[in-house]
Structures are given as structure tokens and as C-alpha cells.
TrEMBL record:
GO CC entries: cytosol
Keywords: Cell projection, Cilium, Flagellum, Protein transport, Transport
Keyword Transport: yes
Highest taxon of the lineage: Bacteria
Protein name listed in UniProt: Flagellar assembly protein FliH
InterPro entries, per the entry: T3SS_Stator/FliH
Gene name of the record: fliH
GO biological process entries: protein transport
Length: 208
């Protein structure tokens, strides 16, 4: 014979007096709902504003970085252009100077060598000889100029004037026992180029 099934009982004493549930007025419920909605709205608005401000800050930072990159590129471009303008100006000035010098030599080919003879003969009063090498076309002019300065400076040494077709018109060499002077347009041009390069290099170093 099987045992009778046990009855399910609730842990509730039905005989005990029950507490009466307090009802909440509808207006209070509505007020609570309104407060909840307002709080949720404010939280959402605050979160939205924070998100917008964060995105705006990121956008502003990115724009600032792009602006700085473009500014750096612009500064480098301006520096390169300024350097190019300076180089062009210096080169143009040197080119004009060379053309003017060549024009003057063509008009007065003996002028430079005459000035060179005058410069050296003031200190050659005891030299045994003076050799002048120049373009063949200038031999007579150089001899006349040297003889004129021999009279004024008291030079009594031997004078030798030699024509050399390999010497450019306007160039020449003066030679004596322990020294000499040279006028060479190519050497002068190379020196001008070296000075231009040094000037530009110094300018680049100053602007770095």
C-alpha cells in the first residue's frame, strides 16, 4: 500500500492578519514618471554633449595637425624659393659683371695690363730685368707703357716684352727675378664662382 502524496503548502499563514497595501495616487505616479523622464533626458543630453565635444575636440586636433603639416610644407617651399631667388640674383649679377668686364677689355684691351705694370714697377727699382708676356696684339702698347713707367719710377733693369698667342687679349704675366704677377680672366672667373658658392653656403647655414 503506497503512501498518500504530501500536500503542497505555502509559507503563508492565512489566518494571520494581512497588511493593507498602500495605493499610490495617480498624480504622484505621474510626477515620478516625469522625474524619471527628465532625469533620463538630462543624462542622455549630457552624454550626447560629451560625445559631441569629444568628436569636436578630435576634429579640431586633426585639423590643427593638418594645418601644422601644411604650414611646415609652406615654410620649406618659401625657403627653397627664397634661396633660388637669391642664387638667381647673385648669378645674374656675376653674369652682368663678366659681360661688362669683357666689354671693357674689348674696348680697352691694354688697360688692365697697363695698371698691372704700374703697380709692380714702383717696387722694382733694383730688379735686373722685367719680362712682360701678353697677347701679340698688345706687345707695342705694353712696351710703351713699361718704358713710360721706367722713366717715372727709376727702373734701370732690362725690359723684355714677349707675345704669346695663348694668352687672352687683356691678360698677361709680369715676371722678375724673385716674383711675378698674373692677370688671367679664367682664374678671376673661378674665384668669383668660389666666392658666390661660399656666400650662398653661409646664407644657408645662417637660415638653418
Amino acid at each position: 500500500m503506497s503512501a498518500a502524496p504530501a500536500r503542497f503548502t505555502f509559507d503563508l499563514d492565512l489566518a494571520a492578519p494581512q497588511r493593507k497595501m498602500r495605493s499610490i495616487p495617480e498624480d504622484e505616479v505621474n510626477l515620478m514618471l516625469a522625474h524619471a523622464r527628465a532625469s533620463s533626458y538630462n543624462d542622455g543630453l549630457r552624454d550626447g554633449q560629451s560625445s559631441i565635444e569629444a568628436r569636436a575636440a578630435d576634429t579640431l586636433a586633426e585639423s590643427a595637425n593638418q594645418l601644422m603639416d601644411k604650414l611646415g610644407d609652406t615654410v620649406e617651399t618659401l625657403a627653397r624659393r627664397q634661396r633660388q631667388y637669391l642664387e638667381d640674383a647673385v648669378t645674374l649679377s656675376a653674369t652682368i659683371a663678366r659681360k661688362l668686364a669683357a666689354h671693357l677689355v674689348a674696348r680697352q684691351p691694354a688697360a688692365e695690363m697697363t695698371a698691372l705694370i704700374e703697380e709692380c714697377m714702383t717696387s722694382l727699382d733694383h730688379a735686373p730685368h722685367l719680362v712682360i708676356r701678353c697677347h701679340p696684339e698688345l706687345c707695342d702698347a705694353m712696351k710703351d707703357a713699361a718704358e713710360a713707367h721706367m722713366t717715372s719710377t727709376g727702373f734701370t733693369g732690362r725690359l723684355v716684352v714677349m707675345g704669346d698667342p695663348e694668352i687672352h687679349l687683356g691678360d698677361g704675366r709680369l715676371e722678375w727675378v724673385d716674383g711675378g704677377l698674373v692677370r688671367d680672366i679664367n682664374t678671376i672667373s673661378d674665384e668669383i664662382n668660389a666666392r658666390i658658392a661660399a656666400y650662398l653656403a653661409a646664407h644657408d647655414a645662417k637660415t638653418e
